């Protein structure tokens, strides 16, 4: 057992001031001697002695009588992790189960993750607003969840490490991970065609449609064409990303030539569309086959079970943790990982009618 050593008042005060400098609470200059003595309940002689100790350590410089003591150094400390800033597509994405688990596991690994103060939706995907957001949320590395092509291109040009979860990362020089949903989607399209479907539509957000369709969306159109289906804006419609916009595009679709099958990306959009269909007495799957391109725990409680593309968040979380641990060691691996998914038939698809 080490011998117990009681610290003098001067040593205790020096430790306190050192910790305040280390944490950033004290910056640029120390408060005056009399102020420190009054606030901390010690004598001015004790303050002077403690400041002299910090001066010997190279943390402060005494600039002379009646002048402030300037802070010139920072306490060297062993960092166990990385300050990671996480930028989500929408604020509600922070409540997704896999995001909650990811943040928890990064903290458990010794990193300091935190969400950016605004989402991509809140800055309207504007690179100028993005630059300001990044300046106001300093971090060692950034994780971008569902970034558009323009957003990810901006991050590629920055000096810090960047990791993309989902989003239009293909062909960009940055690390990332994404479920490989194209084969599962192709399986679903093939099955719909065998059931007699020809009017098949995919609803996705604008950044997946513009300026050109992303990989998944283009693969969807290519699969339809492979079955001899002529494709156009009907199959990948434009719409305003609001509740009213979703209702408006669905109204338009069902007004003249109703689709017999509908793919919808993201669970929140799917649930909004599902409620719309129920309100207009469009029966699933009798009148319309419905497929979500993502999984959700809520689907297990639905009757009939929701047809969807299933993927496990585990490989994605592991990829992010491996990359973050590497960044903490000074590495910047830019590998992009795609992992398998599968189509769950469920009970919301059936033979085409009409």
UniProtKB/TrEMBL annotation:
UniProt KW Repressor keyword: yes
Q: Which Pfam families match?
A: GntR (PF00392), Peripla_BP_3 (PF13377)
Asked if the keyword Iron belongs to this entry, the reply reads: no
Could you list this entry's UniProt keywords, alphabetically sorted: DNA-binding, Repressor, Transcription, Transcription regulation
What GO annotations for molecular function exist for this entry? DNA-binding transcription factor activity; transcription cis-regulatory region binding
Q: Which stretches make up the HTH gntR-type domain?
A: 13-69
**What is this protein called in UniProt?**
HTH gntR-type domain-containing protein
Look up and give the organism this protein is from: Coraliomargarita sinensis
């Amino acid at each position: 057992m080490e011998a117990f050593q009681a610290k003098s008042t001067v040593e205790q005060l020096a430790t306190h001031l050192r910790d305040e400098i280390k944490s950033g609470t004290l910056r640029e200059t120390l408060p005056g001697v009399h102020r420190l003595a009054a606030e901390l309940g010690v004598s001015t002689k004790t303050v002077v002695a403690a400041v002299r100790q910090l001066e010997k350590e190279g943390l402060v410089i005494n600039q002379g009588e009646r002048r402030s003591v300037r802070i010139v150094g920072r306490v060297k400390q062993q960092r166990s992790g990385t300050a990671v800033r996480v930028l989500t597509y929408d604020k509600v994405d922070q409540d997704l189960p896999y995001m909650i688990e990811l943040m928890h596991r990064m903290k458990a690994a010794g990193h300091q993750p935190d969400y950016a103060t605004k989402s991509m939706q809140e800055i309207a995907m504007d690179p100028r607003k993005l630059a300001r957001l990044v300046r106001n949320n300093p971090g060692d590395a950034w994780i971008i969840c569902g970034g558009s092509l323009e957003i990810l291109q901006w991050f590629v040009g920055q000096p810090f490490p960047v990791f993309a979860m989902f989003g239009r990362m293909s062909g960009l020089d940055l690390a990332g991970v994404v479920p490989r949903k194209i084969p599962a989607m192709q399986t679903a399209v093939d099955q719909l065609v065998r059931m007699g479907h020809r009017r098949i539509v995919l609803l996705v957000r604008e950044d997946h449609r513009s300026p050109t369709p992303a990989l998944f969306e283009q693969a969807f159109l290519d699969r339809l064409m492979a079955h001899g289906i002529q494709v156009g804006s009907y199959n990948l419609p434009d719409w305003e990303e609001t509740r009213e916009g979703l209702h408006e595009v669905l109204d338009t679709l069902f007004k003249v030539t109703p689709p017999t099958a509908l793919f919808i990306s993201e669970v929140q959009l799917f649930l909004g569309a599902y409620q719309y269909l129920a309100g207009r007495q469009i029966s699933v799957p009798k009148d319309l086959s419905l497929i979500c391109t993502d999984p959700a725990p809520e689907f297990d409680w639905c009757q009939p079970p929701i047809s969807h593309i299933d993927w496990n968040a585990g490989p994605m979380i592991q990829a992010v943790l491996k990359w973050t641990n590497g960044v903490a060691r000074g590495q910047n691996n830019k590998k992009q990982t795609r992992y398998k998914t599968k189509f769950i038939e469920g009970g919301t698809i059936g033979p085409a009618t009409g």
